[in-house]
Amino acid sequence: MTKRLFVKGNEAVAMAAVEAGCRYYFGYPITPQSDIPEYLSRELPKLNGEFIQAESEIASINMLLGASATGVRAMTSSSGPGISLKQEGISYMAGSELPGVIVDICRSGPGLGGIDASQADYFQAVKGGGHGGYHIVVLAPSSVQEMYDLTMLAFDLADIYRMPVMVMADAVVGQMKEPLVPHKRPDTPLPPKEWAVRGIGDGGQRVVKSLYLGDGELEAHNWKLHAKYQLLRENECRWEEFETDDAELLVTAFGSAARIAKTAIMMAREEGLKVGLLRPITLFPFPEKAYALLTGECKRVLDIELSTGQMIEDVRLSVAKDTEVYFYGRPPGAGSLPTPEEILEQIRKYY
Amino acid sequence: MQQVFTRPASLKDVQTHFCPGCHHGTYHRLVAEAMDEFGVQSRTIGVASVGCSVFLYSYFDIDVVEAPHGRASAVATGVKRARPDSFVFTYQGDGDLAAIGTAEIIHAANRGEDITVFFVNNTTYGMTGGQMAPTTLVGQRTSTSPYGRKREKDGAPIRMAELLAQLDGVAFSARVAVNNPRNLMDAKKQIKKAVRYQAEGKGFSFIEALSACPTNWGMNPIAANERVGTEMCDYFKLGVFKNTADL
After folding, report:
1. Which residues 145-164 of B are in CB contact (within 8 Å) with A?
2. Longest Cα–Cα distance in chain A
3. What is the mean pLDDT of residues B190-209?
4. Which of A11, A337, B162, B200 is the most exposed place for a label (fewest CB within 10 A)?
5. Closest among A81, A73, A66, A170 to A119, alpha carbons compared
């Protein structure tokens, strides 16, 4: 598979899901992610899979819960308002330690907002958008190739850590077309799903649940989940560094904002400004150590987001002492996507 | 000596948490007997709901997935689509199925999911302490209808078995009671059909099971049992509202 395709980010997600062995999709139409259900409604039946257009996002996340409980690879996708509806089910999946992939192609809000790219759902995704105090893995692709690669990774991480994994992109990355080199799914060793329900004919009773009423049970369960989050922080942080070696100003951004920032950094380098980029790829676990390490040398950080500032809270918590953290953001909406020139101006301002 | 009565293999040898006079235990037994009869226990995946029915896994010796409040039929859809050879059923109360889970049950039924739904209607939210349910009878006092349910303000109690029977996807819909031996024998018959139809791949089957809730009705078990046969059966008529499975 060395062919080179020219596809949309959303299509890359759907293609990667199929390659990763996902045969069950449950969803509800919403802009700007509908290419994903459209693609899978066409392809999954050919593979003896199941595609259900559910009555709501609530139903679709619960269908995902049910399918995942049987041990199969399954997914759903949506955008802001629909992801809000899914939070109940995501909390139950986190509590029940169920794998499952949730793709969030973010649009702007709050409320009905608009359909433009936004990064204002960072808190919702990264801080546990539902009730009860939990985390899910959040992956933030910034290119069509990464939409493919990280969707595939999402299925592996979900199975390894037995938890929901979100691929969080936005309208820009979801809708744009770029070259994609598809590839086979990596040969990652995966734990057997002994916990999956399949009928007691195949061993003793298995129960997938999140209710713990016995004395001390729920506290122990929460510490167990917490230990997984610690393990993720140690083992699964992913980030990209670009021109950071001699940087005197470190720009940080994720997803589509990082693409614009990268162009601005190349323009700044042409002007002789020593600027670099730190792009988190995992938003949870947040690559805290990369920030600590890089800000050991470079004491100025410019955080850029398509919002009024959310990731900046994690950036501030992660940088080395005495680091100055500046912010430039554009809240989402038609006409609010910043240009590289606009970012370059900010680089000059804080350099 | 010949043993003529025994605990169904699909039920565990444990005590339940159900209150004296509650009909959940009887329905558990009838469902378990039907599972035994059709030999589906070993390939059954039950979906537990939220309410008094949540401890399904403590009483049934089967694999169980616990669903969020009202979402059991959506969870069961995911289970059944992924494992079509399993026997998949939900067991839900009236607050769960007929209030917060209305969208999920209607659409699972309308898709004709090949699952069996046991819906226990006791006209109240049992687990949370006797609040008004969508099935609470007009005039019935509950902890959130202290002056009695008012039709003009709260609407009339919802008849789920009749409502679902309207949908093309539904193969079987019946309402049963276990307040006397005659009704119990009929309930047993209908529950067996609801299990058999899925085993035969006939499609969506729905059993609405009327139950007493002495604790939250503020009645003793005998009075509560009588109320099922009078007030409840007057409004929630027993019978089979649809059966295309045997045609």
Report:
1. none
2. 70
3. 95
4. B200
5. A170
